[in-house]
Amino acid sequence: MMRFLSAFLFVSLIVCAQDDRMTSFAIKKDVALSADPAKSHWKKVKGVVTTTDRFGKPVPGGSRTEIRSIWSPENLYFLFINKYENQYLKSNPSKTDETWGLWDYDVSEIFIGEDLQNINLYKEFEISPQGEWIDLDVIHDKKPQPVDWKWNSGFKTENRVDSANKIWYCEVQIPWKSIAKAAPTPGKEFRLNLYRIEGSGQGRKYMAWRPIMNPSYHTPEKFGRMVLSAKSK
Cis omega before residue 60 (within 30°)? Predict the structure, then answer.
């Protein structure tokens, strides 16, 4: 019995240790953004799924987010498949200029950092269902202004909303040169967390891939890791 319990605990620890890892799979060349999970480069990619809030509690109403990732020598890609209950959107959206305060509405968010030692250095990317965006260079412990919103990563996004099935597809392309000092290589790791905000008022939902146990998404000590795989799928 003790041997069985020891083996069970060992396996459980391995599973728990892997829960904070996301894999980004290699592709040979860049792809056109489509926000379509049926495309060949996305179809068989295994991603991560979250149905919980910032504190690890289940989000009510059936909201669910699956996130997949692939990478090329030039760019890092994410695909969000967001099952939503309600949407809260900004009037008069702009796709040409950054939208400060976008986090007050529905967004998908990527927080990623190359420096595994100085966890306060990372980049933030936010996208709305309407294609609005903002990118931020974050120095979390810098006072009085921890973010540089004039920084421009050159990232791109494509969005598609299936209102009949209440699914918002969001695809993101981020140039490596905006988040990493060196060219990407298999096995390289990044600090990462993935978020989504949905709805308004009392029904507003704050979803997180890695629970941060804090109202603020800017809790880098709770981020997970993303590893670059040499495998294509």
Answer: no
Chain centre to alpha carbon of residue 81? 11
| Domains present along the chain, CATH in parentheses | 2-229 (2.60.40.1190)
Mean pLDDT, residues 16-28 = 82
pTM: 0.91
Name which of 76, 81, 70, 72 is nearest 37 in CA terms.
81
The three-class DSSP label of residue 176 is: helix
- Measured distance between the N- and C-terminal CA atoms of the chain, rounded to whole angstroms: 39
**Residue 178 amino acid letter:** S
Question: Alpha-carbon distance 65 to 196, whole Å?
Answer: 8
How many other CB atoms are there within 10 angstroms of residue 139's CB atom?
Answer: 14
Q: Is the peptide bond before 144 cis (omega within 30 degrees of 0)?
A: yes
- At 233, the pLDDT band (50, 70, 90 cuts) reads low
Structure tokens at 62: 């059936």
Contacts of 128 (CB under 8 A, 6+ apart): 89, 90, 93, 99, 102, 105, 106, 107, 159
Number of Cβ atoms within 10 Å of the Cβ of 179: 21
CB 30 within 8 A of CB 39: no
pLDDT over 90 at 7, yes or no: no
Cα pseudo-dihedral 100, 140, 138, 122, rounded to 10: -130
Spatial contact of 107 and 128, defined as CB atoms under 8 Å apart? yes
* Residue pLDDT, tens place only, 197-211: 999 999 999 999 999
Q: Is the pLDDT of residue 5 over 70?
A: no
- DSSP state, residue 189: E
